[in-house]
Sequence to fold (625 residues):
Amino acid sequence: MNEFHPARLQRRAEAARWLLLALFGVLLVTFFRAQIVEHDRFQLRAQGNRLRAVPLTSPRGAILDRNGLVIAENVPGYSVKLFASSRDSLKSLLETFRQIVPLDSSDVTDVLRRYVSSPFQPAPVLGDASFDVVARLEEHRAALPGLVIQAEPKRQYPDSQAVAHLVGYVGEVTEGDLAANRFPGASLGTIVGKAGLEQQYDSILRGVPGNRYIEVDHRGRMVREEGAAPTLRPVAGTPIKTTIDLPLQRFVDSIWPIGVKGAMVAMTPKGEILALYSAPTYDPNQFIGGISSAQWRVLNTDPDKPLINRAIQGRYPPASPFKLAMSIMGLKRGVITINSHMPTPCRGGIQFGNRYFRCWKKEGHGSLDLLGAIAQSCDVYFYQLGLRLQLPAIIEEGVRLGFRERTGVDLGPESSPIYPQNTAFFDKLYGPRGWTAGSVTMNFSIGQGENTQTVIGMTRFYQGLANGGIEVAPFLVHPTTTAVHDYGVTPEQALDLRRALIAVVNQGTAARSRQTGFQLAGKTGTAQNTSGKDHGWFLGFAPADKPQIVIGMVMESMEGGHGGALVAPYVSRVARYFLLGPDSATKVLLPIQLPEDTAPRPLDLPPDSTRALLPPAPIPAGQRR
Fold:
C-alpha cells in the first residue's frame, strides 16, 4: 500500500517530468547547434558524402621565344576517367573498357594503383584521348557506368624534337614527388613539369586547378555527372618569355647529322641563350596524357640515352679549347707573352722522363710563338707551357677561371664539371705514390686527364673570351646571378688571344670554316675517348671584332681524323644563319667527313685589320668577382 501513496507518486511524476524536460532541452540545444550554429559544417559533410570532386586541369602558361614565337602551348584535349565504388568494381569496368578501347596490362595496373591511392576520385584511364576514342566510348556509355569524359587543355610542342631538351615535358605528379614536396601546392592528378623549362618554371606555368562535382548515392555509385554543384573554374598559368631564337633552334636541328651524338649551345655575349640542342633527341609530345610503359622502356633502355641533356649534363675532356685557359694562365703569371717561343720546337712530340708525349701532327709544327701555337693547336708548345707553370698553378688558376663551377643556368639539373681543387685530389684518386706531377701536368696542358667539362660550361668560358676576359652567367629566362667573372687579363692580352682565335679560322685548324660576310674566331679540339672514337669540339664567336653570338659544339665519336675540324663547319653555318639570315645558309647538309686536303696550312699572321680590333669596354671593378 505504501508504494501507491499519493505523495510518493506525485514526487515520481515530478521527477519524470523534469527528466523529460531535461531530455527535450538537450535535444533542443543539439538540434539548434546542428541546424543553426554548425549548419554549414554539417551541410558540407553531407555534400561530401553525396558529391565527388573531379579536378579540372588548369591551362599551363605558354613558353615563348625572344620574339613571341610559341615553343610550348595548349590545345583542346580529352581525358577519360572511370568512377567506381570499389577496386573490384573498377577492375570489372576496365575489362569492359578494354573490349572497346585497347589497354596494355601494365596500364590497367597503373589505373588500379592510382585508384587505391585516391579511392574517392575518378581513376584516370586515358590522359590524352583522341576524338575518335571519345566518340567510341560515348557509343558504349551504357556499358560503362561511371564513365567520365571531360574536355581539358593538353600541352603541345609544335617543334617537338627540335626543342625537347630545352623545353622538357610534363607528366602527372607522383606520390614520391608529393612526399618530397618537389611541387608545392600539387596533389594527386596534378600535371607538373618533369624536365627542362617546364620543370624549372613549373610554379609559374602551372596555374591553379579547379573542380567540378559528380553526385553519388550512399554506395558510392555515380548518380549525376553534370549540375550536381557549381563548378570551380581553374586559373591559367603565367606565360614565360625566353631568350631562345626559335628559328635558330630549328636550324640547328635541321643540319645536325643523323646518328651523331653531341650538343650545341649558342648565346649572346650578355649570357642570353639563343639555342640549346642535344642529340639524340626525343618527342616530348609522347608524354602528353602519360607515356605508355612500352615507350618509357624504349627511351630508358636506348644505349644512346636520348633523355640525357648533353648540353648541360654531358661531360667531356675539353681538349684543345682548354689551351686558351692555359694561355691565360701563362699570360697572367708572366711566364709567356704572345710572341714567346718554347725552347724545344715541335717535331711531332717531346720526350719527358721515360715517356714520349706526341703532338697531333706527326711531322711537327716547328718553332711557334703563342699565337701560332693556338692557331695550329700545337701540343708540344703547351706541354712546355704546362711544365713552366707547374701543376699547382694550373689547378689554382683553373679554379679561379671557374672550371670547377656549374654555370647555374636556369634549366634544371646541371652536371658539375670534374676539376681538382688541389693536388690532394690525385692522392685520393691514385694514392700518394700512384701518380707523378709531370705526367698529370702534360695531360692537363692539352685539356685531357682529370678534367671534364660540360658544353655550356665551355661555351661560357669562350663567352668570357668574346667579352675581353669578362664572363657573365648564361640564362634562358632570368639570370641566376648578377655577378661577373674577370679572367684577369689586360686589354692587350685579350686582344692578342682574339687575334689567335681568328688565326685558327683563317689559316689554322679550322681553315675550312671561313665565311664571307663576317669573321669567325674560335678553337677546334679533339678529345680522347677511352671507350671509342675521339670527340670533336669547336668553340667560337662572331663577328670577331664585335661579337654577337658565341657558340660551343661537341660531336661524339667522330670519324675522319681531326674531330674539331669536322665540327667547325657546323658552328660556322649556325653563326652565318644568325648573323646574315636564313637566305644566306645553304640547306644542303654538310658531310661528316671532309676531304683529305683539310690539313692546316702554315700559319701567317691574320690581316692587318684584325690588329685594330678593340676589346669591349671593361666592366667596373666593383661588379666583378
